[in-house]
Records
---
Amino acid sequence: MKTLLSTLNGAEFSPIRLPGCFGWYDFADTSVITLNGSDISQISDKSIYGNHLTQGTASAQPLYQLNAFNGKNCARFDGDDSQFLIKQSATGTPDAWGYTLFAVSTTSISSSTTTIMSLADNDEETSFDSCRQNITTAANFTCRTTAGTDSIAWIESTLALDELYLYRFELIDGTSRQTFVNGVQGDSGSLALAYEKRNAIGIGATVRNTVANFHYGRVCEVIMYNTLLSQPLAEQVENYLTEKWGI
């Protein structure tokens, strides 16, 4: 297992050195955060695509929490206030079923499933992919198109409220999905839906024409790739996130 200070092709590891990174949202990096008082109105994307996430409605802006984990800052989402960040008409998003998504986050509620991050089709109410988290099902990966819905859950009975977890969600060649929690592979399942475009990115909610499934908890970092990373490359990202956030 490599560490945060490991090298890739002779240079210190960075998520954007891997192929296909279309969204890197690092809430620990104050240089990419725009504040409205103590709340986040924008987080700038550190990938080459510039898919910056924004929220213009003050009541829907998540709190910027200082020194939350391992001495680093994060975003705190209050689902009761319908808080989320969004980029519509994003570029570099997947153009076929097959991608890898990572998130470091907590959940503060055990009674419902809340969305860490999502991809969606701006033009279709029922077309989205949602990466969700709760205590009893750990990581629920829902893919929906206008033709129907496929969902898969990774079960872990020992998840704790407000505990930090590292999630990896993979969609494989349009035929199957799998999830990982703290590097441990959970359930996998087949996917029987034809690909539909994904041109919107959200953190803190399932973004579509009607935003839903708001997150209760903290989000520290989200990294998105428009391709399925090999296991060694995915582990590079996981090791980076694990050491950085003290998981």
---
Amino acid sequence: MPGKIDVGDFLVGILSNIASIVVVGVLGGIWYLALRWRLRDFFGRFTPRIRRRGVPLLGWADVKVEALVSPPSPSELKRAGTVITIGSPGYNVASQFVEENLDPPVRFANDCSELALRSGDRVGDAGSGVAERLVDRTTGQVLFYLAGPSIAGTSAAAKYLVNDWRQLRRRQRRGLPYQVVQALSPDGEHYTVVPSGGE
């Protein structure tokens, strides 16, 4: 589907100018595999209501979703379609690309042991995670960055995107393209939203 869909919805922002959605994680744990497949399966759970004048424009069947292991170098990253990257830049080349090239509002600090705002102010603790929606200004590619300094924090960020993407959409419309979450369980299955910036 060439070009952009002229519909002002965040979900369409995920789908605009894409042929695919790529979920990138690292090989190193069953939990990463489970997260990648959970996000991949999310796109098969419902049919989006993307219509113009009552005519459906796009269905999930039109979108190819891949779950990939982090490539060994940034030059091997998919540079078309939407990318959902899971994990810290210490383990994931796609996350490293995000931190080095897209200036995310929340990033890793102190050798990936904590999250911090651009200002350097620390955000949360080891159980915190962040879900961010970023756009590469040179290519227009949309990247979702889901990460935390622990398995629990990263898992909570991924679970947040799957369960509460509408809330992230509302935040982005207010100029806040991220949400910090706090894991309430060791596996990140249960989390709470951390009030931040403009709440």
